[in-house]
Specification:
The chain is mostly helical. The chain is built from six helices and two strands, in the order H-H-E-H-H-H-E-H. Helix 3 runs parallel beside helix 6.
Length: 197
């Protein structure tokens, strides 16, 4: 068993060394005008998409972001107006508390306390609903891009499409010739334009 493992290890190292030498020789004698992406594509290789660029140029993402910002602004405005109305009621009560009877004060305080609890529940529900909508939109975005990337990779003959994002240390370096972001953004925007019609 040890002999077999030793043989496999030597064979693997030998193949790696031979592959490295062949790759070095290919780089020295290869046609310089051939792009890296085309060479990788011909071999069914690996390419990457810059996620930051994709999101900044993908029209669906821009529209989704605008929809979410509008919903957030509307929900925030509604919550703020309810908060202000409640604060006015409390301020009005505090101004007139000395002129009210004990029963009236007690009834008003209980009502204001109940309204305060209802406001807190409303605020929490509004925030939860917005988070659910945001999560749902992000899931739709992911599914759209993932489905497109699957078809794109198949059509181009890629075996793997990676994502690259500034600050994400999963990819420290990638040859710029492997960057297919521009092509992907164009394809996604074309597909989105068709969906909008």
């Amino acid at each position: 068993m040890k002999t077999r493992a030793f043989f496999l290890t030597k064979l693997t190292i030998g193949l790696l060394v031979a592959g490295s030498i062949a790759a070095c020789n290919q780089n020295k004698t290869g046609d310089k005008s051939t792009s890296s992406a085309a060479a990788i594509s011909a071999n069914g290789g690996i390419v990457f998409v810059n996620q930051d660029t994709l999101l900044s140029k993908y029209e669906y993402f821009k529209d989704m972001t605008k929809r979410l910002e509008d919903k957030n602004k509307s929900a925030t405005g509604d919550v703020d107006s309810r908060r202000q109305a409640l604060q006015r009621e409390v301020a009005d009560y505090q101004k007139s508390a000395n002129t009210l009877s004990a029963d009236q004060r007690s009834t008003t305080e209980q009502r204001l306390q109940r309204e305060g609890q209802e406001f807190q529940s409303y605020q929490q529900n509004a925030a939860g609903q917005f988070q659910n909508e945001q999560s749902s939109e992000q899931q739709k975005l992911y599914e759209k891009v993932a489905l497109f990337m699957k078809d794109y990779a198949k059509a181009k003959g890629y075996k793997m499409v990676l994502t690259f994002q500034k600050g994400n240390t999963n990819v420290w370096y990638a040859d710029p010739g492997l960057d297919v972001t521009t092509d992907v953004v164009k394809g996604l925007n074309d597909a989105y334009a068709k969906d909008k019609k």
